[in-house]
Amino acid sequence: MTLRLFNTLTGQFDPLEPADGIALRMYACGPTVYDYGHIGNFRTFLQIDVLRRFLLLSGMQIRHVMNITDVDDKIIRNSIEAGIPIGEYTAGYVKAFFEDMEALGIERPEQIVRATEHIPQMVKLVEKLAASGAAYRTDDGSWYFRLKAFPEYGKLSKKDLSGMEDGARVDVDEYEKDSARDFALWKAPKPGETSWDTAIGRGRPGWHIECSTMAMEYLGESLDLHAGGEDLMFPHHENEIAQSETATQKTFARHWMHVRFLLVDGRKMSKSEGNFYTPRDLLLKGYKASAIRLALIAVPYRRQFNFTFDSLTDATNAIDRLRTFHSRLSSGRFATGENSAMQEAAKKAQEDFMAALNDDLNTADALAPVFDLVRAGNTAIDQGQFFTGDRDAILQVLEDFDAVFDVIKDRDAEVTKRALKWATETGRMAEVAVELVAAQTLTDEAIEALVVERSAAKKARDFARADRIRNELQEKGVVIEDSKDSVRWKRK
RNA sequence: GGGCCGGUGGCGAAGUGGCUAACGCGCGGGUCUGCAAAACCUGUAUUCGCGGGUUCAAUUCCCGCCCGGCCCUCCA
Quick one: A382 exposed, middle or buried, by C-beta within 10 A (0-12, 13-18, 19+)? Predict the structure, then answer.
């Protein structure tokens, strides 16, 4: 069974398979590192992460390349304002981006490439286009792509630009472009701007040429899949297609995946709306990294996701249910043997889980069988109809689930700890939720000691004292769960 | 103006031309527990934005309308 993934280019659900029959060659547009990434950025990266993890789980090999755009207008502007070179300016945000990826459990692509390290290759591509007449130089030293050279322009975004007359609704700007829609391949430097001295003149690359160049450099002239946020479809991806296909006369990417934007409280997220959040903001408010991940993943990638704090709370609680069940399986004692009904339930959950993801990565649908299995398992355990063989079968399903969703394995405490460290270093402690600070005052060892103390009090039937300890822990965000053979605790 | 997506219970959300409309969260009742928590049982949409049409049968297909959102410029 193979994944049928919606293909923007064909408008259909096409099977996603490597053309060479070996490894899927995929390219994903990465971040422009002029600031911290926000949850909108990360929804896209997270959904692409779901794709790559699912492909790997399905046994496919992949070669996944992601770029980092470390030179662009905003970067140049901000670095000039800060009075530092662009490399120095972007370094901090590149580092932050990797930290955020790790915090959210986004796997590293096989290859991460940076625009500023591929200038010569970009220049070569511009030269190739120029040689065929598809690129031209203007008086200021910039280079443009001649849209007329690529009649198929608009095939991805399904735009018919032929009726669009130059000068009607589009500015014919200060550069002497032949046609208003022609886009920049290479930009001549303005005074004080970072630039490279190259065979096509001094300047810096346009955004679109970066991706074309790096994608083809590492994956060849024809890719299996190209992915990115929906906004990139036009003009960015359309321009990539125009440049690449004009240069190679080959299909640039057979399959295009676009992740839908998210809203925040029903509105487009923006700084001016005051509804702009980074993962760091949410961590400092006390939300767990796993909850952010699940919330951003649980609504399928082609559907608009409305982010709210309720959605994070819901995700937190859902994860708690999964983790509680998981630890009940791992720590519980069961008799040897198996229950055939449980075995079947595990098998069915596994199949349904895979089938849902094979259906255009339907993450919402994929969660259902897992939760069904949780209930069936809990019920069987409660009734004493649960055995070691069942535990093993179910743990395997949960492992596969987590290979894609990655929320049961609990790294939340360390991620939060790092966020707090960052807040300290950058003077943002005032933004940190008070409960979060309170929770940090207790080490795991201190909690263990209190739990032991409480158990002793309970055994002595000193319930007042036991409850006092439980309340104290509760105030610091630690919840206690008594079970037959043990006491579990967790940080809320 | 042009292109496009969505409107399913208190919230999020899956889904299908006819099977009891998944799953998660929340809330009510119960079981268990010293009390909790967890877990389980149970109740929470006779109904899928509104109006019309096609059909033996529509939430699912078609048309119109209303509402929300996105793109057409930098943006994940």
Answer: exposed
Report the candidate in A119, A112, A76 with the shortest Cα–Cα distance to residue A94: A112
Taking every pair of C-alpha atoms in chain A, what is the biggest distance, in angstroms? 90
Distance A408 CA to B75 C1' (A): 33
Q: Which CATH homologous superfamily contains domain A4-259?
A: HUPs (3.40.50.620)
Positions in chain B where some atom is under 7 Å from a protein CB:
3-6, 11-15, 22-26, 33-41, 68-76
CA distance A235 to A170: 14
A4-259 and A267-404: same fold? no
Quickly name the fold that domain A267-404 has: Isoleucyl-tRNA Synthetase; Domain 1 (1.10.730)
CA of A254 to C1' of B75 (A): 25
Q: What is the pLDDT of residues A345-354, one digit of tens each?
A: 999 999 999 9
Complex prediction ipTM: 0.94
pLDDT tens-digit readout, A199-246 = 999 999 999 999 999 999 999 999 999 999 998 999 999 999 999 999
User: Could you tell me the distance in Å between the CA of residue A3 and the C1' of nucleotide B42?
Assistant: 39
Q: Which pLDDT band holds residue A442 (cuts at 50, 70, 90)? A: confident
Q: How many CB atoms lie within 10 A of CB A297?
A: 27
| Closest nt to residue A490, judged CA to C1' | B37
Q: Which nucleotide is nearest to A73 (CA to C1')?
A: B74
Per-residue pLDDT tens digits for A14-24:
999 999 999 99
- Per-domain residue ranges of chain A: 4-259, 267-404, 416-491
**Length A292 CA → B6 C1' (Å):** 23
d(CA A63, CA A257): 16
Q: Calculate the angstrom distance between C1' of B14 and CA of A52.
A: 23
